[in-house]
Backbone:
């Protein structure tokens, strides 16, 4: 039996994802792997969400959960597909190799933020030996002749049938204990749990009978409901402001002399547009962040700075343009224009993708 510790950032949004997390946990618990193993689920990094991270004494492994059964077909470029037992082909939404590579790179960047303080004994090259695997349903296979796993050693395709055998081979050249594992967990800003957190679409648990030990569950449900209500009210504010605009008002260039980051009252309607990473508003957001945040951080000698989308939205005098602001803050163009790197985007639990509370953490380039 292997000792497991559980942590999560958000609840699984789908029952099939929750079922696979349970499968991983049960497989590990019944194995003879060296422990403890910290199983961290559903947390965000700069460019995506990690389904499952295994923090083990001798290495770290990212698992991207795929609820597909069959022969997996895909290489470094192009489409990925799964050919089912009946011959039916299913295209994956994204290139799995690209997805795993991006998550792996993001995690390595986070580890180096705490390297000197948390585990200075680990060599830089060893800390980069993070594995990232696709995890499919039992019985799935990944035939040879595709990604060369002997050359791309961090990559693999596994199932519950092969997971433990593959984990026995993981050794990144270091050994860490619970203290170092706790430092990683703290850096990821996740919370501890007694087991795999229930999925968001799982059937509601019946309320505990009077006098039963159900207080933590009742409190948790109350907090979640209160948070949902608060988020809904926050997201309704821009819509309420937009309703104040007269329908006949049309967009026009700002009056002469108007600052580029301000919108004159009554000049432009508050229609909601799609996410923007290019275009006039996105350019204004990029210039604003470069001037007001990146330049100021450099002048103060800092190496990082953070900003919420709501701060930018409010400081620029915008109304109901949160998707555009978030899109600009996530864009590669912003990184190049300001010579910064997006380290992570932190979202509150159960908050939608484009929210005023989204916090973007950036690192200044040399």
Residues:
């Amino acid at each position: 039996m292997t000792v497991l510790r559980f942590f999560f950032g958000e609840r699984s949004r789908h029952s099939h994802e929750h079922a696979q997390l349970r499968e991983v946990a049960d497989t590990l618990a019944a194995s003879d792997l060296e422990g403890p193993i910290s199983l961290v689920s559903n947390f965000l990094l700069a460019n995506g969400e990690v389904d499952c991270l295994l923090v083990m004494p001798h290495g770290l492994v990212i698992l991207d959960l795929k609820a597909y059964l069959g022969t997996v077909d895909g290489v470094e470029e192009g489409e990925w597909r799964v050919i089912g037992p009946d011959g039916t082909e299913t295209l994956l939404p994204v290139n799995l190799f690209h997805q795993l590579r991006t998550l792996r790179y993001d995690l390595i960047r986070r580890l180096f933020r705490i390297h000197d303080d948390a585990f200075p004994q680990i060599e830089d090259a060893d800390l980069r030996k993070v594995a990232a695997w696709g995890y499919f349903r039992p019985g799935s296979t990944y035939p040879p002749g595709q990604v060369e796993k002997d050359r791309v050693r961090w990559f693999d395709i596994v199932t519950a049938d092969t997971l433990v055998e593959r984990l026995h081979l993981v050794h990144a050249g270091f050994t860490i204990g619970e203290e170092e594992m706790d430092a990683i967990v703290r850096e990821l800003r996740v919370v501890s749990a007694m087991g795999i957190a229930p999925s968001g679409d799982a059937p509601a648990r019946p309320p505990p009978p009077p006098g039963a030990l159900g207080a933590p569950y009742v409190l948790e449900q109350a907090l979640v409901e209160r948070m949902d209500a608060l988020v809904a009210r926050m997201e309704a504010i821009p819509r309420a402001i937009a309703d104040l605009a007269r329908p006949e008002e049309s967009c026009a260039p700002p009056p002469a002399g108007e600052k580029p980051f301000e919108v004159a009252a009554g000049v432009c309607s508050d229609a909601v547009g799609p996410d923007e990473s290019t275009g006039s508003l996105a350019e204004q957001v990029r210039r604003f962040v470069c001037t007001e945040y990146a330049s100021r951080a450099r002048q103060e000698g800092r190496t990082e700075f953070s900003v919420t989308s709501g701060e930018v939205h409010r400081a620029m005098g915008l109304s109901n343009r949160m998707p555009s602001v978030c899109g600009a803050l996530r864009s590669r163009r912003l990184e190049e224009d300001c010579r910064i790197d997006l380290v992570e985007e932190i979202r509150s639990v159960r908050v939608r993708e484009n929210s005023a509370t989204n916090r973007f953490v950036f690192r200044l380039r040399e």
